[in-house]
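User: quick one
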Amino acid sequence: MPELPEVETVARGLQRSVAGQKILSVALGKTDFIDNPDVLESELSGRNVVRVERYGKFMLLWLSARQGSNNSGGEAALLVHLGMTGMLVPRPAAEPHVKHTHVVMQLGDGRELRYIDPRRFGRMAFLEGETLAEELGRFGLDPLEMRLEQFSARIHQRSARIKALLLDQRVFRGVGNIYADESLWKAKIHPAQLARRLKPEQLQKLYAALQSVLQKAILLRGSSISDFLDAEGMPGEYQQHHRAYGREGKPCFRCKTPIRRAMVAGRSSYFCPNCQPPPRSEKKKKRMAQKRRTR
DNA sequence: CTCGATCCCTGGACGC
DNA sequence: TGCGTCCAGGGATCGA
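Assistant: Done. Structure below.
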């Protein structure tokens, strides 16, 4: 569930608390979510965490070259995806490891940077040089850095549903189910609307909605739905500002019509059936269902 | 290109 | 209290 605002929150926290720290050694538990556990283990120890930043839904821990190496591999980084339930948190080494602690990095100041993930939907990888560049190149625009023209260009002639495109990390990096639904609600666009059908005014509205929703969410340190906590163990507050996501049956904040839930692009999607009018294709589907019932 | 289905995994909700 | 069952959900992958 960590999406752009949650990952940004964690990354900022880690930048404050672990940037500059040296990784002395690494201990691994379950490793099925790690690209190449042996490489990760051997490459991490002895490096400094230079800087922590967000890249889409990933955290990027930029690493120094190791002493004695000529840094032939180019820039190196630890890539961390939190999946649904991942947490990356610094703790005093003396504190017991909670269940599902799978990666423990001993830091120079006596703390440990721990990766905890019950479902292991996350991902961790040590990457450097060309491999790293290639991996990062797979992803689309950062929603907070793109201009309107770039946003529109990525969307306007695609035949997929707008929600599917918003969720596609190759198109935009960092948007997930919550913020896609919230943005679409704010822009009054139905999630199943075909992207190429959107008018310029709608694209402009969606662009603005996406940015304001994400910025406000970052300000409130993300949404804590199930158990999201930031690097300091604090929950976010944006869930109190949700207008669509998770509000099935509750009145729309604009028109009081009950919020509906439907599967779009394989994800449960929340929307106001009045403010976000369904596209023709959806109406057709409804008529078919009606026919079946009356038959 | 776009879609849906399937798998990964565990905890929480729910029914009995 | 304790089972069993179902579901959520990002992303990879595969077939239609």
